[in-house]
Amino acid sequence: MDNPFNLNNLLRENIKKLVPYSSARDEFKGEASILIDANENPFGSPLNHDYNRYPDPLQHQVKAKLSNIKGVPAENIFLGNGSDEAIDILYRAFCTPGVDNVILVPPTYGMYEVSANINDVAFKKVNLTADYQLDLDGIANAIDAHTKLIFICSPNNPTGNSIRRQDIETVLNNFQGLVVVDEAYINFSAVKSFTQELAEYPNLVVLQTLSKAWGLAALRLGMAFASKEIIAVYNKIKPPYNINQATQDIVLEALNNVDQVNDWIKETVSEREKLVRELLELDYVQYITPSDANFILVKMEQPREVYDYLVQYGIIVRDRSKVELCEGCLRITVGTPAENRTLLEKLNQINK
């Protein structure tokens, strides 16, 4: 790769000098019969499970199981309190407030902008093209000496389409900062994950989640995949026990059920295609963006009125009609077959 990437040049000076907090579980590793080093309650918990001990700060068991499933070495995995923590740490590690900037490519996931604002980091918006692909010239022109991160969501939220792989590779090869590819919806796509490219691109960070296909949104477990050096930065900054023991235990159990998840994915994709076909038969539906996610972006006449109509029946979709480049659109998550049938019944009843 021609890109002269140097991680040390990107890090904030205070992070380079940071001495991370050293917890009791960091200082002692191994088995012991009497643990009186961490000021824990020695009697247990007022629950059926004992949660009186602090959890593994680096979640070794969970990472080992994820490593087998994802085909990524455990040393290249960071686990966060949702993908939001993984995003926030990137800002805190690499972006000096009031000095550095990042590039966003709207319409896209809103937390990139919120996290920038929280961290007092400027952001430049380079809108996607009319077909929701990267504006490579626009991105190139927006990059300056203080641009540290570029966020690319693929499959993209709220549009559902995948970003062309060769375009993402072009950005990776020509940008000396970090390229963050958010693959929250990758399980629903036939496109290959960028996790398989970590060795080729030292400036690549891939985000994934257990909130979507794995059905664990309530547990808040996000994943970042990157080089060992970037993962070391993550672990340096994160709170000492950022993933609680209950979450680790439940996730370990859930990860035994890959077949169940794969069945759900297949059914979701099948239902997505059925939903698209039937929605396109409605006179007021104008266009549906081809989707690689578990949702579809539907352009229609009077979207707000349709939204309000569905609310009357307890059916909640997402109104995206005020989002730039998504004018006139509702975002509809693919439900169960029964939920999708009810949705279509109500939409067919609208007096066009």
Automatic annotation (TrEMBL):
<dbReference type="InterPro" id="IPR015421">
    <property type="entry name" value="PyrdxlP-dep_Trfase_major"/>
</dbReference>
<keyword id="KW-0663">Pyridoxal phosphate</keyword>
<comment type="subunit">
    <text>Homodimer.</text>
</comment>
<dbReference type="Pfam" id="PF00155">
    <property type="entry name" value="Aminotran_1_2"/>
</dbReference>
<dbReference type="GO" id="GO:0030170">
    <property type="term" value="F:pyridoxal phosphate binding"/>
</dbReference>
<comment type="similarity">
    <text>Belongs to the class-II pyridoxal-phosphate-dependent aminotransferase family. Histidinol-phosphate aminotransferase subfamily.</text>
</comment>
<keyword id="KW-0808">Transferase</keyword>
<feature type="modified residue" description="N6-(pyridoxal phosphate)lysine">
    <location>
        <position position="212"/>
    </location>
</feature>
<dbReference type="InterPro" id="IPR015424">
    <property type="entry name" value="PyrdxlP-dep_Trfase"/>
</dbReference>
<protein>
    <recommendedName>
        <fullName>Histidinol-phosphate aminotransferase</fullName>
        <ecNumber>2.6.1.9</ecNumber>
    </recommendedName>
</protein>
<dbReference type="InterPro" id="IPR015422">
    <property type="entry name" value="PyrdxlP-dep_Trfase_small"/>
</dbReference>
<dbReference type="InterPro" id="IPR001917">
    <property type="entry name" value="Aminotrans_II_pyridoxalP_BS"/>
</dbReference>
<dbReference type="GO" id="GO:0000105">
    <property type="term" value="P:L-histidine biosynthetic process"/>
</dbReference>
<keyword id="KW-0368">Histidine biosynthesis</keyword>
<dbReference type="InterPro" id="IPR005861">
    <property type="entry name" value="HisP_aminotrans"/>
</dbReference>
<keyword id="KW-0028">Amino-acid biosynthesis</keyword>
<feature type="domain" description="Aminotransferase class I/classII large">
    <location>
        <begin position="48"/>
        <end position="347"/>
    </location>
</feature>
<dbReference type="InterPro" id="IPR004839">
    <property type="entry name" value="Aminotransferase_I/II_large"/>
</dbReference>
<keyword id="KW-0032">Aminotransferase</keyword>
<comment type="pathway">
    <text>Amino-acid biosynthesis; L-histidine biosynthesis; L-histidine from 5-phospho-alpha-D-ribose 1-diphosphate: step 7/9.</text>
</comment>
<dbReference type="GO" id="GO:0004400">
    <property type="term" value="F:histidinol-phosphate transaminase activity"/>
</dbReference>
<comment type="pathway">
    <text>Lipid metabolism.</text>
</comment>
